[in-house]
Specification:
The complex is a heterodimer of chains A (about 450) and B (about 450). With about 450 residues, chain A is of the alpha/beta class. Chain A has helices spanning about 25-35, 65-75, 80-85, 90-105, 135-140, 165-170, 195-200, 205-215, 235-245, 260-275, 370, 415-430, and strands at about 1-5, 15-20, 40-45, 110, 120, 130, 135, 150-155, 175-180, 220-230, 250-255, 280-285, 285-295, 295-305, 310-320, 330, 335-340, 345, 395. In chain A, helix 1 links the parallel strand 2 and strand 3 (about 40-45). The longest helix of chain A has 17 residues, at about 90-105. Chain A is globular and about 70 Å long. Chain A starts with a strand and ends in a 16-residue tail after the last helix. Among the domains of chain B are: about 15-110, Orthogonal Bundle (Fumarate Reductase Iron-sulfur Protein, Chain B, domain 2); about 325-425, Rossmann fold (3-Layer(aba) Sandwich). Chain B is built from 24 helices and 8 strands. In chain B, the strands form 2 sheets. Chain B has a 4-stranded parallel β-sheet with strand order 2-1-3-4, with helices on both faces. Chain B has a 4-stranded parallel β-sheet with strand order 6-5-7-8. In chain B, strand 7 (about 395-400), helix 23 and strand 8 (about 415-420) form a beta-alpha-beta unit. In chain B, helix 13 (about 205-220) crosses helix 24 (about 420-425) and helix 16 packs antiparallel against helix 17 (about 290-300). The longest helix of chain B has 20 residues, at about 240-260. Chain B starts with 16 loop residues before the first helix and ends in a 16-residue tail after the last helix. Classes of the chains: A alpha/beta (about 450), B alpha/beta (about 450).
């Protein structure tokens, strides 16, 4: 919903950039804006989907050779795809900026610099997932050049990861894999353990020592050792290094059920980085509508406690997510729309919900609704109105909410989040790519 | 509206059922939106430090499936919930996790009764007033290690919980004498009036906060009114004593509704009291009548109000420079307001002053939680990330809005803690007469 306001709000004290959404693209948009020297506010109703996602960065999962070359080729042929809208440079710079900022906050993300190919990573079911970039712990599972056996370690009594299942499925694909289960040094409590409980245990060197002792007898003939992705929260890098050194094998992580530790580590570190740079980070209350004057958004309203609170800004980055994050709303009559600025979506073109799905749940390229229920944008990523014109001069959309791809099946959701966050901020602030400071500003 | 009244629902499908439910019932219904993603569990500062609490999802939306309306919680671990509310904030699907848990606590109290200790902690308003004439004696007791250990043994009130000292006089008493010197505007000019809600702490432990608030509001050119008022009710609510909390709430709504009707803003310096008045009266306690809503709409946290005035061009910005850098802790109760960080926004108007937000969800004290002997260690562990950042920054002074948080931060870090109104008053060059008060920046 938007409010066309009569009184001029243009001079209200506000920030240069207002980011709505705390997913990957929202957080990175805030980072880019801070690095450009802007005053930034980030508002989100809850944390973004990185907390339930595996944690890797899919850029183009189906690419067999150089991933970036594949994306460039695809974008050239598909002008409505978000990669084409953002442009090749934004994708390349967005990935590099992400790798730089994560390294600066102590969470390294790796990719195959050698050949630019996708890595081949191991999932909790023992499938092989092709991904371009991943947190170091997960990237360590890259199976591409492995010649010896892989050992998968499970934690007895924990219901979220079954190493035998994963190892069995790997063996059936011709990958030499074994499974063991070890005991937790801590007595079981009355409740299920969550991934975060285990991760906090792995933060402790005494706990890790007890784990290492149980794994060491099984490493003969083993090249890599895999654990569920719970190897530490606040001290993850230290935990990963320590385990690799003591077990004397490359240790890797396998993403398990939510909450996602890779996503939590990233969100926590980025939040602290943003707060120390003066960004107002506000998680918890929904933005209910945009305040529009002419063709500009001058701010937004938040349904705060007791009353509505306005926040003013020169530029707005809309990063509220897609169909499953509330960025795109649907009604039982089949209406599909963006609720803050009341923007139309690319489809479906026919009323009703009949055309939303195919008759089988697991359809290879997904269902029509997931490809259509997104915003159409111009080459500056400004959402288009029903007439095909930019709806607002200073509102930019990023990530899952864009039309033209299926974030569930296309294997490029994180790449699009990073490319469009970069493009949106650089367009809004009229930055030259060369002016981007990257992660020269380090430390927490 | 009590918990047991059955509302009549329109089943035609035109309005979602959840929106037809009374506000306090909507919390329970919101459990249907829970995907069990555990984002709240990952963010819960209590579950992070103790195995005694399985996390907000387990005792909240998950246990909610096993609770009939009016039935007690299937488990007692919910008692370890501190009601900090971080779970509700981080939920991407709008589940009112903290509200569900607080209501579950109340059902347990309804069934099993309130412990003597929790009854005691729920009535700080009473102890504040009754203790004032005996301030020197009580302050000796509060500082005596031996007596505190005895109190811990007898009443399970932690000897390490940072109790304030009594001021020896009340803010209300001071105001009764003082207000004679403050001219009133013409009766019809409500636009120049503001109501100050002082809360219990300012009334009996830290009257200087109230004096500074009055000085700032008058400097802005507003006429301050301080009607009779009582405890906001949050301590009783957090301890599950909804009867007492509703009693306090009704008293305040009655005292403030007339002002709200006239459009006079109600402002308070304790962010947690303001959370109760703006939100909990309706959403948790179920007092959802026109007056409660009107009061909520017109109630502002002190710094939120200053920032609103600034947005309207009504805040004098002739601030004297303060060449200092401070870390700022945004209390969990303040985060629940959803109004951003007006402290940082207002302080950024003061030349030379640099304030940055500590990355911490909660200081651990969570109202009365950190005063309970069995929960004190948890409260200290919850506050540890905050303390680490204060130590790492080498900060001697921390800014924070809420009184118990300030006392907790001082106890954890040894740092001095100040309310943001102290800096605003200093930057305006305002002084107050108070033997117990030292301004944060030199004369």
């Amino acid at each position: 919903m938007t409010a066309n306001i009569a009184s001029p709000h243009g001079n209200q004290p506000g920030t240069d950039v207002l980011v709505i959404g705390a997913g990957l693209s929202g957080l990175m948009a805030a980072v880019h804006a801070v690095q450009a020297g802007a005053r930034v506010r980030l508002i989100a109703e809850g944390w973004g989907q990185q907390l339930i996602a595996p944690g890797w960065i899919s850029v183009c999962d189906r690419a067999d050779d150089d991933v970036i070359a594949e994306v460039r080729g695809y974008a050239a042929l598909h002008p409505d795809h978000p990669y084409a809208k953002a442009g090749d440079d934004a994708m390349v710079h967005g990935l590099e900026a992400f790798q730089a900022i994560t390294a600066a906050i102590g969470l390294s993300y790796d990719r195959r610099r050698r050949d630019g190919h996708n890595m081949r990573l191991i999932t909790m079911l023992g499938a092989i997932q092709r991904v371009m970039m991943a947190p170091r712990g997960i990237a360590n599972s890259d199976w591409t050049d492995v010649t010896e056996s892989i050992l998968l370690v499970g934690l007895r009594g924990w219901r979220d990861f079954y190493p035998e299942l994963a190892a069995g499925n790997l063996r059936s694909q011709g990958i030499e894999a074994r499974a063991i289960r070890i005991d937790l040094p801590e007595p079981p409590g009355p409740w299920d353990r969550w991934p975060t409980d285990l991760a906090r245990l792995f933060d402790s060197s005494a706990f890790r020592a007890a784990i290492i002792k149980q794994v060491q007898p099984h490493i003969r003939g083993v090249e890599k050792v895999g654990f569920p992705a719970v190897l530490g929260l606040d001290h993850h890098t230290e935990a990963l290094t320590n385990l690799s050194e003591q077990i004397e094998r490359l240790v890797f992580e396998i993403p398990t059920l939510p909450p996602s530790l890779p996503g939590l580590r990233l969100s926590n570190r980025l939040r602290r980085w943003l707060l120390r740079r003066g960004v107002r980070v506000q998680i918890g209350h929904p933005v209910t509508r945009g305040l529009v004057e002419g063709d500009r958004c001058v701010g937004v309203e938040v349904q705060a406690l007791g009353h509505v609170t306005p926040f003013y800004a020169d530029h707005v980055i809309l990063a509220t997510g897609g169909l499953y994050s509330g960025g795109i709303q649907t009604s039982e009559t089949g209406r599909v729309w963006e609720p803050i600025f009341d923007l139309p979506t690319a489809g479906p073109d026919v009323p009703g919900r009949e055309g939303w799905y195919y008759d089988r749940l697991l359809k290879e390229r997904g269902h029509p609704i997931h490809r259509q229920a997104g915003l159409r944008v111009d080459h500056d990523l400004r959402p288009l109105n029903a007439a095909g014109e930019p709806a607002l001069a200073n509102v930019y959309a990023t990530g899952h909410m864009l039309a033209g791809f299926n974030p569930l099946t296309d294997g490029c959701a994180e790449g699009i989040a990073l490319a469009t966050a970069y493009k949106a901020v650089h367009t809004a602030l009229e930055l030259d790519d060369k002016n981007h400071r990257g992660a020269t500003d380090t430390g927490l | 509206m009590t918990d047991h009244d059955q509302p009549v629902y329109d089943l035609s499908g035109h309005t979602p059922l959840i929106e037809q439910a009374p506000l306090a019932r909507q919390a329970a219904f919101s459990a249907d939106h829970c995907l069990k993603c555990n984002i709240c569990t990952a963010a819960c500062p209590v579950a992070a430090v103790t195995p005694l609490f399985p996390g907000p999802k387990t005792v909240g939306p998950q246990a909610q499936r096993l609770r009939e309306p009016g039935q007690p919680s299937p488990d007692h671990a919910v008692d370890y919930c501190s009601s900090c509310g971080i779970c509700t904030l981080v939920c991407p699907h709008g589940v009112k996790v903290m509200e569900i848990n607080t209501q579950a606590k109340a059902r347990i109290v309804e069934r099993d009764g309130l412990s003597l200790r929790n009854w005691f902690l729920s009535r700080n308003e009473l102890w504040g007033r009754l203790g004032t004439p005996f301030a020197p004696l009580l302050n000796f007791g509060v500082r005596s290690r031996l007596l505190r250990l005895l109190a811990e043994k007898l009443f399970k009130v932690s000897a390490r919980g940072p109790l304030p000292g009594w001021a020896g006089y009340t803010f209300r008493g001071w105001w009764q004498r003082e207000q004679k010197q403050h001219p009133r505007p013409a009766q019809h000019d409500d636009s120049q009036r503001v109501v100050f809600f002082h809360g219990c702490s300012t009334n009996t432990y830290e009257p200087f906060i109230g004096k500074l608030a009055v000085a700032v509001l008058e400097h802005i050119g507003l006429h301050v009114e301080i009607p009779p008022q009582t405890c906001c009710g949050l301590p009783a609510q957090s301890n599950g004593d909804f009867d007492a909390a509703r009693c306090y709430a009704r008293h305040n709504i009655e005292a403030l509704a007339d002002y709200a009707r006239r459009g006079i803003p109600i402002v308070g310096t304790s962010a947690s009291c303001m959370t109760a008045i703006k939100g909990d009266y309706r959403h948790v306690l179920g007092l959802d009548d026109d007056d409660a809503q009107l009061v909520a709409v017109h109630t502002y946290d002190f710094m939120e109000f200053l920032w609103k005035l600034h947005q309207e061009g009504r805040l004098p910005t002739g601030f004297q420079p303060i060449e200092r850098e401070y870390p700022y802790h945004a209390p969990c109760q303040l985060k629940a307001h959803g109004f951003g960080r007006p402290v940082l926004d207002v302080l950024s108007l003061i030349p030379g002053l640099k304030a940055w937000e500590i990355d911490a969800d909660c200081c651990g004290i969570a109202g009365t939680y950190g005063y309970k002997a069995e929960k004190r260690a948890i409260a200290e562990l919850v506050g540890w990330p905050l303390a680490e950042q204060v130590h790492a920054a080498g900060a001697g002074t921390v800014i924070c809005d809420t009184e118990t948080c300030r006392w907790q931060i001082t106890a954890l870090t040894g740092a001095n803690t100040i309310h943001p109104v102290e800096l605003v008053a200093a930057a305006y060059g305002l002084t107050i007469t108070d033997k117990a008060y030292t301004p944060p920046v030199g004369e």
